[in-house]
Amino acid sequence: KINLMDRVITISNHSKQVIESTQYKGVVKGTDQEVELSCNVPIDIVHYPVKKCTPCEIELNLEYDFNYLIVAQWGPRKNIENSIKWWIEENFDEEVGLVVKTSMKNNSIIDKQHVYNSLRDFIKSISTPDMKCKVYLLHGDMEEEELQYLYIHPKIKCLISLTHGEGFGLPLFDAACHGLPIIAPGWS
């Protein structure tokens, strides 16, 4: 579909190079015609800007002084379920928290209830009676200033992004801009 566009706009030299160098070869079924797919339209880079907003404090009521943060839509590529599962397996006996800022489809009340139920049932299925770690759900619209506060909250110590099939995302960029350490796979 990329070749149906007049132009591709991306945010980094890295992503431009990946798009330019990616090629797929295949054979059309029925005709045995060999085809090669690649980007044939111009690619421009418009760097993502550093946000100039003043973070606005929000009340989170985090029980522990050390908390991790996940900011991602709940979907297959973001790998939310495995991220939470692996985090609980690693931290089940530690006094640490995991703040999960997520939604599945949108920020509606129905979506919030669905996310809450899914998260509750998922944690219940993998938790143990001696589990000390805590998982907190943040759902719904947040002003930019409120979202930026998550990256400087005194009890949030790092961002986790265990995606697969995803590249460098805006939450990672925002966390890095605020000096928040990031845990992510060494891919993309």
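Above is the first protein from milestone M3; the second protein from the same milestone is given next.
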Amino acid sequence: MKFEAVAEAVEGVPFITDENARYLYDLVLRERLERPLELGFAHGVGSCYVAAALDELGEDGHLTTVDLLSAREWQQPSIEELLDRIGLRDRVTIVREHTGYNWFLHREIDGRSDGGVCRPHFDFCIIDGPKNWTIDGAAFFMVDKLLTPGAIVVFDDVDWTYHWAAGHSDETDGVVHADLSDEELRTPQIRAVAELLVMQHPAYGDFVFTDGDWFLARKSPDGSAAPRTVRIEYI
């Protein structure tokens, strides 16, 4: 399905920008990513662009996307409604969890483990949840076990802070702003995950920071922690 057709169907629905939507759609096509995982889907606009790119590839590509069960109350229009609009609901498995996507990752790792080894499955992962050092930092290490060699991981909202969010609400995805220290409020926690966890992980390289507030990293072609050449790009 063409990008323009999706853009028309989801026009006015938050939260992905047109620029990031284009970047995401083109990335799936260019890299031929057929088994993407999305952690945090909100209304499902990004999910629609991924599903459309999978459809455009013409293969058996399928998206698995996960969010909080309680978030369904505000997610109107819903991801189901948007996918129905573009006729691609069969391209997506929607999962809603009581406590967030890390328990989904627990279940996936458990189900794909045999003889003490987890079999990787996904070739792409978007992590776009509470933007929290503890939650998303842990999610990265869990996702890593599920990513195939050469897979790409993307984090949204690199420079977002709880200090900014505190001016708009009392909590973010269950994290109560008043419970945080000033340092926790003012630190861009996803940037910390990117720089202190992902970029220091010996199996990752090809790091990209975009002007759309995204961070991308690629797992090594053989999935190992062998000596690497690190490339950092700022778009």
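Note on the second protein: The CA atoms of residues 191 and 225 lie 22 Å apart.
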